[in-house]
Amino acid sequence: MMNFEDFEEKTLSRENIFKGKVIDVKYDTVALPGDLGLAKRELIFHNGGVAVLAITPEQKMILVRQFRKALEKVIYEIPAGKLEQGEHSDPESAMLRELEEETGMTTKSVKKISEFYTAPGFCNEKIYLYKADNLTKVDKPRPHDDDEVLERHEVTLAEAKALIQNGEISDAKTILAIQYWELETHA
């Protein structure tokens, strides 16, 4: 079995290409393992995010429908958002904030499902995925972000799977959450 050193690409130089509000873009020159030479790596650094499989007392999942500029289309997704500075130590609180902002709901019943990287070939974004049930309505919920236009939907597991099949659910975090829900339901 190969060791970490057999795979590691050592960074020789890093060029800062872009520093934004959500991402930083870097261009690295790396030494490949052994005598394989040098390579260039275009990298995106992201603060990370949270997402929630929110299940209503009626056993429906809450989805939000919104336009995604990078895709130039409207898709359904589970409630989610980016981690703000300082939230890495408590992603569960960040998830509860996003749940309230995007759905007007909250809960004391939270289970961490997974942590995963969205595109590890070029990006370090990590999403913390939770399940929330026993949801209760918040009297005066925090408003969603000023630049978000959301439409809330509640769907059954069968309806969620149909949305995957017809392409209206096409992002990995939502598909992963639905798969988890199906496995949990049929366990």
Automatic annotation (TrEMBL):
GO molecular function: hydrolase activity
Alphabetized PROSITE patterns for the sequence: NUDIX
Pfam families listed in its UniProt record: NUDIX (PF00293)
Limits of the Nudix hydrolase domain: 45-177
Keyword Oxidoreductase: no
Keywords assigned: Hydrolase
Keyword Lipoprotein among record annotations: no
Gene Ontology CC: one annotated term: cytosol
BP GO annotations: nucleoside phosphate metabolic process; ribose phosphate metabolic process
Cofactor names: Mg(2+)
CDD domains: NUDIX_ADPRase_Nudt5_UGPPase_Nudt14
Stated name of the protein: NUDIX hydrolase
Lineage, broadest ranks: Bacteria, Bacillati, Bacillota, Bacilli, Lactobacillales
